[in-house]
Amino acid sequence: MATHNATDYKNQNHLVQKATFSKMVSGLDIKPGFRCLDVGCGPGNFTKLLVDLVGKNGYILGIDPDEDRISLAKETNSHISNLDFLCISGGHLPTDLPKFDVVYSSSVLHWMTDEEKWETFQRIFRLMKPGGTFAFVTVLELPYAIKEVFRYVEDRRTVPHFLYTEFPSVLKYKQKLAEYGFEVVDIQALEHASVFHTTEQFLSWLTATMHTEINLGELCQKHKIDLKIQTNKHGECTLNVPRIWAYAKKPNALF
Length: 255
Description:
alpha/beta
């Protein structure tokens, strides 16, 4: 049975990442009968939304290394016959699977080390049909609020490694895509605002998405942390996160 952490993440993730996912998928032109691979599907919130696009003759596979989130994805989507989930990381994708028309990854690559990212790219390329599309959205730079919270964590082994590392640039991603055989259609850095009703909701989402057991609210109070989160005209908290948006193709086979 999936844990509360996975369930909490499912609820929080839906709130924060829906707009990002919808925007990315709108550029994929997914058609009935397509085979699609979701790299880093989490609890499957958005993976299942593609079922209507591919129709009964299409197929969707979601992968994620988190056992609890995959268990939750399977539990809540067991009634959908052409939707499967597999507990595995992108860097360990079996390359003998039937090929995919579309592979996408939403807000996942920054969780991987650089070595894992590039191994994932290579495996994805081998799993794509000629002419297929690979799309991803990933964090380019962490906003001040997130960096400031975790600056006060004493044991860095309890939180994700990327909180203290520098992310690859747009140019680096472009170079790696080309190196592994992709034709880059579009890649750019765009700032995207995540909206939270309250600061407490932001910290609740941050706790769930970072897999941490640290009480971030208490941490902020203890160190008197000013998150410097802006509010919009509705009084909601807005977090601007620079992200890389990329679309690439696997070239058609040459005869």
